[in-house]
Amino acid sequence: MKLLAIEASQNATYYISRYQQIEALGAEVHVLNGIGTEDFWPAERYRIAGSKQIEDIVTAAKIWHAEEEFEGVLTFSESGVVTVAVVAEALGLPSIGFEAARTSRNKLLMRQAHERGGAAHPGFRYAPDVEAALTAGEELGYPLILKPTLGAASNFVFKVDDPEEMRARFADATSGIETMTWALMEADGLDLGPNGIIVEGYLDGHEHLIEALAWDDEVYLGSIVDRITVESGTFDDDVHHAPSSLTPEQIAAVHEVVRDAAHAQGLRRSVLHAEVRFHQGAPFILEIAIRPGGGGLDHMARISAGHDPIRCVSDVARGLRPDVSHYAPTGVHTAAMCLISGAGTVESIEVPTEVAEDPALFFLKITATPGTVIKRPPAGNNILGFIGATGTSLTEALTTAHVAAGRIRTEMRPEHG
User: Fold this and answer.
1) Which residues form the ATP-grasp domain (predicted)?
2) What is the pTM of this model?
3) For 234, which DSSP code?
């Protein structure tokens, strides 16, 4: 089977390992980047459109499809989901459709869909300027969450406790979204909806990340991971654990809210990455993305729940129903965390052999390289990479991950540039 993977603007080498996972499942992956480097993928299965314009990407895809007859189109990039929906429709291949993709990309359109569809969600307001944000604070009450409508990876997402902080964080976020990578990597020529700031009510409970599948009228929760980060005013998404500590009753309630939200977003045949947070004992939807979760969440899903989000992507792209079932933990404990440094420029990163070859580590991915500029909140939310470990308990898995992370040596220059 031949599949076409697309990024409007190449995100370094981040998705190569996932393309390799697709190929390990028996597919032949061809990669089309709107803008990209020459050596990204094997030359015979790689093309660069030379432009981020959606019309140019569609044209390049049509020409290649006429030669290769692809069975499906896919992406793992949050900045590529709308582009893939448009390209798939243009090629006559299975597609989520432009409107469902746009709704699932833009946080304001997503919230409005949740409101119309009756999915439990936090109160929200769109804030085109700081005065609107302050009015939202008066109406919704503090603390609040401030986030970009076209954000990703927790960039410029802040918890705001009072009007003074609202003014400061609104300025940080408004300035930040002008240069935010995730928005800049989108294809040009697409109407993605408002590119601005949304203010939401704060949910005070525990948070969970879910790899799921929408197929016709059903939604399957394949994997549930608990976010166990000690929370501050920013959101690093840095420590996770599976299997989930949720009770069967809580899982049933989570299933209901994810199903309602997915259907409200117009998702009937899609891979889902859902984020849910409890408030006063009940689950509320934070968001649903239409691609697998990042970091090591796909590995955690396979190990802790027997669910393979990457295989689901391959099947859904071709219009095939994946072989999935409802959440059933395996009993193996996993813990994963981001590798976080201070702000600055990376001089070097050294991974000792005993860490690289540690059998207890199921995932180790260094995404930064020498010269990478690391921005930390409030200026951005860059990280060095990811690490994940298994164990017979949460404590054992988390300790293994922490010890291994502590052995990775990183040299930084404090100044940017």
Assistant:
1) 111-318
2) 0.91
3) B
Residues 158 and 44 in one domain: no
Tokens for 8, please give them: 């409007």
186 and 208 within one domain: no
Task: Please give the single-letter amino acid code of residue 387.
Answer: I
Question: Considering only CA atoms, which of 71, 21, 11 is closest in space to residue 363?
Answer: 21
The three-point CA angle 114-281-298 to 5° equals 65
CATH number of the domain enclosing 240: 3.30.470.20
CB 305 within 8 A of CB 330: yes
Q: Report the amino acid identity of residue 362.
A: F
In a domain, 365, yes or no: yes
Tell me what percent of the residues of the chain surpass a pLDDT of 70: 97
CB 289 within 8 A of CB 313: no
Rounded to whole angstroms, how far apart are CA atoms 236 and 311? 27
Dihedrals phi, psi of 177, to nearest 5 degrees: -70, -15
Asked whether residue 142 is assigned to any structural domain, the reply reads: yes
- The residue from 179, 201, 223 where one domain ends is 201
